[in-house]
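tool_call: predict_structure(chain=1)
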Amino acid sequence: MTEAQVTGLLAQYQAGLEAELALLDRLESLAGRQRDASELGNFEALGVASDERDRTMAALVTIEHELKPIRQVIAEQREALAATTAFEVVAALHRHAAQRVTAIVGTDERALAALKEAERARRFAAMTLEQGEATLAAYRRVVAPAPAHASLFSRKG
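tool_result:
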């Protein structure tokens, strides 16, 4: 592989990483919106952010699919490329992307914790309502017992 070809691949890979970073910025923002919506119990906003996130993830996967063969060639030529400035730039972008992914995963974990807490609160509320209904039904039986059977039907004659 010639030096010009390798330089071209590095430039392509750099452009792809920069596009991925832009999408990761978007994902980070969406993850924050999802976390906030989860904490507030705003499930409509959570759904909207989830839909946007799905579209962003699809674009990210598409770019990643296109970069995979380039990454393989760069990995094969790593020793020859390691001393170049272009490789250093690409490596720095790659590290930055990894940091962004870690931040997004952390935000997602907080959103998931908020959703689990909301589910626990919902279950507790449902259980409390069920207990209240049972208590009220028992109270009603004591306070207002069932009427005696109608005597019209009980008599002969």
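agent: The chain has a mean pLDDT of 85. Proceeding to next step.
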